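Deliverable D2.4 — example input (structure tokens):
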């Protein structure tokens, strides 16, 4: 049956490719992959395809990269074919109502939290920063015109032991993407076959998170006198939450110092590797010697 389900996949980063890998393993192959347009990246600002597009090319799947959903071209393109289903994973466009109504079996979204907890743009990193381990998991839901408020088809928690918390952001991104992809691979055929009953979310229990902003990853610390106690724990959570998406930094003598590696040991924050502004990455002990 899996090969008979005709669906389009709307994917972005960092979850898009791992979810596709799980679908591929289950024999679920999208007929079309929709992703962001190529963008300039790196120091040379070379036009670079998004990872989802690269995966599509490697797997021989057609790609569509609309700039927006306002000029009618996307509607013309997608409405020209019959679709059983659309699947949306970390795609950063707000989808119009006409698109949500287009497929026969509606639009399924993979959301990396236990909805209705952590609705919004950054549930994984917000859970780390705000110490919300109990809200970590994935939800497969039907999309509607409201943000993250659609009925739930299935969800799964991700228990994390004390000794492994907090999990570095990139590691948790990948783990939840694979969990979500595996769950999605079970949900798609069951939903299309009419074997699942959508469950309304408990809207009164909803919590929300926004996009992470520049400057929120600054630690107000003295490198010569690193914090302990609750301040150290807060700093440690922040470092893990922003890992790989700008990283956490502190300012010293007017210059930014990016934290690349740290640990929390016996309630004390310890920095291991840093990148001082205008310099190469170095051991924190070498950095301290340079400012002494």
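Example output (designed residues):
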């Amino acid at each position: 049956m899996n090969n008979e389900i005709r669906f389009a996949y709307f994917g972005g980063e960092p979850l898009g490719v791992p979810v596709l890998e799980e679908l591929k393993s289950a024999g679920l192959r999208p007929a079309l992959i929709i992703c962001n347009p190529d963008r300039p990246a790196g120091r040379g600002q070379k036009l670079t395809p998004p990872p989802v597009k690269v995966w599509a090319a490697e797997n021989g799947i057609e790609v569509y990269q609309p700039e927006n959903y306002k000029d009618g071209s996307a509607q013309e393109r997608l409405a020209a074919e019959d679709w059983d289903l659309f699947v949306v994973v970390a795609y950063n466009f707000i989808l119009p109502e006409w698109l949500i109504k287009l497929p026969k079996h509606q639009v399924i979204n993979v959301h990396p939290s236990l909805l209705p907890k952590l609705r919004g743009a950054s549930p994984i990193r917000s859970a780390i920063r705000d110490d919300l381990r109990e809200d970590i998991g994935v939800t497969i839901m039907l999309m509607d015109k409201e943000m993250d408020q659609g009925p739930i088809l299935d969800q799964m928690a991700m228990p994390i032991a004390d000794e492994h918390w907090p999990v570095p952001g990139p590691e948790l991104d990948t783990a939840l993407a694979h969990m979500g992809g595996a769950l999605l691979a079970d949900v798609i055929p069951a939903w299309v076959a009419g074997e699942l009953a959508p469950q309304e979310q408990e809207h009164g229990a909803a919590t929300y998170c926004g996009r992470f902003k520049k400057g929120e990853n600054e630690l107000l610390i003295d490198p010569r006198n690193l914090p302990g106690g609750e301040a150290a724990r807060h700093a440690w959570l922040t470092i893990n939450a922003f890992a790989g998406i700008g990283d956490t930094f502190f300012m010293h003598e007017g210059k930014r110092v990016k934290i690349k590696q740290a640990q929390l040991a016996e309630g004390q924050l310890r920095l291991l590797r840093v990148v001082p502004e205008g310099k190469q990455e170095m051991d924190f002990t070498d950095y301290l010697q340079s400012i002494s």
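Residues 2-209 form a domain with the Rossmann fold fold (CATH 3.40.50.170).
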